[in-house]
Amino acid sequence: MDVDISRSRVGGRARAPPSKSYTHRAILAAGYSDGAVVADPLVSADTRATMRAVEAFGGHVDRDERRLDVAGFDGRPGVPDDVIDCANSGTTTRIVTACAALADGLTVLTGDDSLRSRPQGPLLDAIQQLDGRAESTRGNGQAPLVIGGHVDGGAVSIPGDVSSQYITALLMAGAVTDEGIDIDLETELKSAPYVDITLEVLDAFGVDAAETSDGYRVPGGQSYGRDEAYPVPGDFSSMSYLLAAGAVAGDDDGVVVEGAYPSAQGDSAIVDVLERMGADIAWDRDAGEITVRRSALSGVEVDVGDTPDLLPTIAVLGAVADGDTRIVNCEHVRYKETDRVRAMATELEKLGGAVTEEEDVLTIHGGESDLRGAAVAGHDDHRIVMSLAVAGLVAEGTTTIEGADHVDVSFPGFFDVLYDLGVELDEHER
């Protein structure tokens, strides 16, 4: 599906979907238990992949309108009857890889073309350090993967600058091993707030884990469990597009984003970024509402070491702002669904943006940018698509986003929300 977006003003109230990061972790935590309920989950292409994995390991997931009833495998995943297809979900692949290492037999994990290009090597090496079997069928550290155990715990040394999801995977699996897992980080941890989310979810399911002087430690012999339904908070990564839309194209009343309650999500930093850029933005944390109006923005420097998913949003804001916006510490953003640094540089240039791309820095020269509608590629990446939609709100003429249906990965109904806010758009098949 392609979407045509015309220059528009936006206003009204909107609610971002529940957090994808929390939903993934809550589904698997419920799978590790003997049964639990996940309330207000994000049901998307990615999280359905995690549901399929839980069922492949012997659990069962019943979906109701606003909840998931998960019958878990009680800490001992079975050997799947078939290959687990993780589709486009890198999070699923990684957290399930460590889970598979607990089983007594072999699990095969694969996914689509994009997923099969993403690095898994450090996690495979960590499982091997724990005396598990972990192989890439092509010998390149990428899926398809063959994983087996039975891992009993121990100590691992792993880099922290490739993906925090490796740490999440080991912490979640380590709780139900006999010995627990000690994680020694060889490098500085990138995307650290995502591990904070993991620790928060583990605690909510009765599991102890903690940061140490060298990394992280999760004791073994624990059980996952929760009497009450686990409520999934709103997703700040998804909110970033709505907040950016209000900042660049809001009417006098602006856009009010609901469900914005404080949590461990690092991407709530988008509020601080917008404030530093000069946006008219206010966050009522008690009410869980953020109000933002169209503002004159100025370029800033933003370190995305802990918030890689914000790079596409910030890049678009930079193209609208005066002066330069420098997005630094971003090399790891190249290893997502696509190389998001290259993708944003390429597509903003098509729209008339002035961009300088370096390995670890993306600079958007707002004062030299003049956004005009053009046909742009979504790169089969939900975050690229949604950020380019924000750019389309201010580009002169019509912007056509190819492959726009990929928003289903994290924000099903994204374009319906934009339409309700007043955006002129047309969805059509290629």
Automatic annotation (TrEMBL):
One of its GO terms (biological process) is aromatic amino acid family biosynthetic process. GO terms for molecular function: 3-phosphoshikimate 1-carboxyvinyltransferase activity. PROSITE patterns: EPSP_SYNTHASE_1, EPSP_SYNTHASE_2. Its main location: cytoplasm. Residues 8-418 form the Enolpyruvate transferase domain. GO terms for cellular component: cytoplasm. It catalyses: 3-phosphoshikimate + phosphoenolpyruvate = 5-O-(1-carboxyvinyl)-3-phosphoshikimate + phosphate. Its EC number is 2.5.1.19. Keywords: Amino-acid biosynthesis, Aromatic amino acid biosynthesis, Cytoplasm, Transferase. Phosphoenolpyruvate binds at residues 20, 90, 118, 165, 340, 383. Pathway: Metabolic intermediate biosynthesis; chorismate biosynthesis; chorismate from D-erythrose 4-phosphate and phosphoenolpyruvate: step 6/7. InterPro entries: Enolpyruvate_Tfrase_dom, Enolpyruvate_Tfrase_sf, EPSP_synthase, EPSP_synthase_CS, RNA3'P_cycl/enolpyr_Trfase_a/b. CDD domains: EPSP_synthase. It is an enzyme of class 2 (transferase). It is found in: Cytoplasm. Catalyzes the transfer of the enolpyruvyl moiety of phosphoenolpyruvate (PEP) to the 5-hydroxyl of shikimate-3-phosphate (S3P) to produce enolpyruvyl shikimate-3-phosphate and inorganic phosphate. Monomer. This is 3-phosphoshikimate 1-carboxyvinyltransferase. It comes from Haloplanus aerogenes.
